[in-house]
## 1
Amino acid sequence: MSNSKNLNTAVIYGSARRDRHGIKAARFIVRKLKDRGHDVTLVDSQEYELPMLDWMYKEYESGQAPEAMQQVADILKAADGFIVISAEYNHSIPAALKNLLDHFQSEYLYKPSGIITYSAGPFGGVRALVNLRAILAELGTPSIPSAFPVSQIFKAFDDDGTALDTTYDERIVKFLDEFEWYSTALQHARNRQQCSVDSPIQQQMCRG
């Protein structure tokens, strides 16, 4: 059963390659999340084109961060959880994805992440998955136990993100059920913490 009421999810995809196939997986997951009632925003490194990391978002004075960086920060702040989509490059994640992730910090805290990896070969990018789990945990967005590897990405989805193999439609259900459980649980925990430190009027609103 879906627990997606009021969940806001950011789908993070980082690839700088011209003929990238992972964008199809991103479109697939965006569609599946919307079908389950999520508010979804795709954060695509090609769209926002953040510079190579010099200053993190938090190091800028308020209102002084580059426009694209501010836009991404606002998306991440509003999100209840993140789906991170990664290729496998030389047993790790793409530089574009790492660069995007590393610009931010507090925006991730106490929110879960779900990992989708892909490759052209049969193993679905699972070696990148191992590295990505450690990165996301360090950023403060620990990944859920389940993962969603995609093998032979070039023939898994069409350009609109429709699965060409129906097993992906079946497999994604358990993955998203689990992601929603963690997203909802941590959303409630953050709300309780907020209520415990705010004004009496806000506490009364929380009880109501």
Note: The first helix runs from residue 22 to 35.
## 2
Amino acid sequence: MGGSRRPLHAMTLEEALALCEATVRSSDPDRYFATLFAPSDKRPLLYALYAFNHEVARIADVAREPVMAEIRLQWWREALEGACEGRPRAHPASIGLAEIFACASPPRELFERLIDARAPEPASAPFADLEALDVYADASSASLMRIAAHILDMWAEVDALAQEAGMAYGLARVLRAIPQCVARGRMPLPADLLAAEGLPVAEMFSARDRAALKCAIARVADVAQTHLARARKMQFPRETRAAFLPAALVPTYLSQIARSSDPLRDRHDISQLRRQLVLLRSALLGRL
């Protein structure tokens, strides 16, 4: 099998974009199905964007040591520079990045924010307070929506919407990821919220007081709901709906999280059918 495969440096653009789409379909179903509502000529660029985001986001999972994580992030910083100059590295997402810059010319600094947001942080509590978590959601999830809107040719008109919808979705994703993070020795909830509920650092990963932990989670969920409520007051052009549709899933995820009996272990996901129905409803109504 290995002997018959074409080397990566010989990969065509079409092959690279197809691999990006496959990556997003398997690893990021929310954004995969949302992208189906984009114009057909824009979908490959959006899949390339989300494949790049996946590669950067997963660094914390595959590189346990901070030094190794930073080396991988630096690789992507250099890959981003090469893609901007039309010299992509031999990686499907890097090749896809070059096509994004060639076709849409999005601000490079938004990609840099995405990468910098994944910089290694202390495992016990990477966010000192709720404001720091909000900043992270803006730099990661909201930046991604801003780039998607740029690809869809509606960057300036929807910047505020991208910020609010992106932060709502980003915070929901953080809450959904708590069991996976704890399993890897990381606690993504802000340290000040945990301390306010009487949960010391030594007990962050056992958290015998589940009620206190759920109160801290509810505080983050309230902020996500606030961002979503602001986003819902904004109009967005039909052409850009694919960029923001993932935020329509926030109420479903937060409701599921609120019903959880064990937030450190319960997994929070929804069926493919329910995901598609929520996204379809939002797309048809033109609101989140």
Note: Residues 1-8 have pLDDT under 50 and may be disordered.
